[in-house]
Each structure stands twice: as C-alpha cells, then as structure tokens.
Amino acid sequence: MTRIALVDAFASRPFEGNPAAVCLLDAPRGDEWMRGVASETNAPATAFVRAADDGYALRWFTPRAELELCGHGTLAGAHVLWESGALWPDAPARFHTKRGLLTAVRRDGWIDLDFPALVDEPIDPPDGLAEALGATPLYVGRGRLDVVVEVDGGAVARLRPDVERLRRVDARGIIVTGRGPGGGVDFVSRFFAPSVGIDEDAVTGSAHCCLAPFWARRLGTSRLVGRQLSARGGTVRVAVDGDRVRLGGQAVTVFRGEITSACSASR
Q1: Over 90: is that where the pLDDT of 267 sits?
Q2: pTM for this entry
Q3: CA-based, 20 to 30 A from 237: which of 103, 125, 180, 185?
Q4: Is residue 201 part of a domain?
Q5: Cβ neighbours of residue 160 under 8 Å, at least 6 residues apart?
C-alpha cells in the first residue's frame, strides 16, 4: 500500500500556507509514475519519500516539472513522517536529495529545516521586468534558482503582474520582496514561477533561502521573520548560519489516503 497525505505547510491551521501532497513510497518508483501522481494531486508540489540508508530519499514534483529544491514539500514530508509514527517525535528527519542532505527537527511546535543559503548577486533588470510586475524595482539580483526583486514594501501586496511576460524571464521564478510593516514581520514577499507551472506560489521555503541572506545583509541581523503575501499567506522564520539557512514553519494535515493498487501497478 502506498500512503498519501495532503499537508498545508507553513500554516498553523488548515486552508492556509502552501499545500503539498506527501507520498510515502514502499518501493522505488520511476520518474513517469511520480510525474503522473503529481499531475493527479495537482498540488503545487508532491513530495515522494522513501526509506534509505541513514534517512530517507526525497524528490519533489510539480504537476509539470521536477523541482531542484522545495522547502514546503520538505516540511510537509517531515511532518508526515513524525505524525505517522515512521519517526520518533524527537528524532531528526534526514533527507537525501539532489541538492544534498537536508534535515528537519521539531522545536516547540515548529519544524526547523536546514537548507543551503542561496546568495544573490546584483544584475541588470531583465528586459520588460518592471512592466511585467507593474512596479519600480529598487534592486534586482540573481540567485542560483531565482531572480529577486526588491520593491517598496507596500507595493508587494498590490502587485498584479503580467504572468505571461514573467514566463519569459530566464529563471525558475521571480521573488518580489519589500521591507515588512513591523509588528514582528521583518520582510514580505511574493513568488511567481510560471516557468514550472506555478503562476503564484502560496508560501515558498526555497525562496527564503535567498531572502534570508538578502534581508540579513540589509537589516543587520541573522534572525528574521518573513510573511509571504499570497492569497493563502504564510509565515516563515529564518536564521542565517554561514552558508546555511534554517527555515522554521508549522504544518497541518488536511487528509490522508492511499494510492490504489491499479495506480501503483501502472507505469
């Protein structure tokens, strides 16, 4: 039996944060099968978790593409392992991924992820970027995966971007960010990734691997709180530690089920 769950990641209650399907595999599966399941769940990401030496093998797929790095899928995967009893409550989750070893631990009702820092470098704005966003960039940089654009903090929530024009930007996605309003929120952001089939992501852990060092440099502190201003919204606690970033979030399971034997036998 192949178990599957839907989890709202970076959320403290259902129907907020970013949905991720988590598929607990009892045997290796091919790429085509995993793409098929991800397309069927139609969640922003589906995490495929399989027991391996010294931890778990982990891969992530959107309905259209495999992801190199996925924060909310990792958080959801760890949450399901602890909730299902596959891991003891105080045991760390160790994930072997294409981006190396990622770990998760539970602390005071939150899950802390240990991810690589993705430091950006300044670049000239891609042609048409300001027009596609409908906002004036204060800064444009490029990280390993994404373009990061700083705008006035109050403009982030008001953005109504031209997604088709953003699709032409040569990057996984476009992170738009600004200073936070205070009240415990240091910075705000939104994330657009039409190139991998996600017009706007609800809460993007991997984007915060870039946002954490970005705002740490500007605000002079290594510990910050970010709020992603999608329609669902979500809060991410970040801490920069050298070339690593710790991402903190909560998670809620929405439903559990199993993949039928007919589906499991196909592909």
Answers
A1: no
A2: 0.89
A3: 125
A4: yes
A5: 134
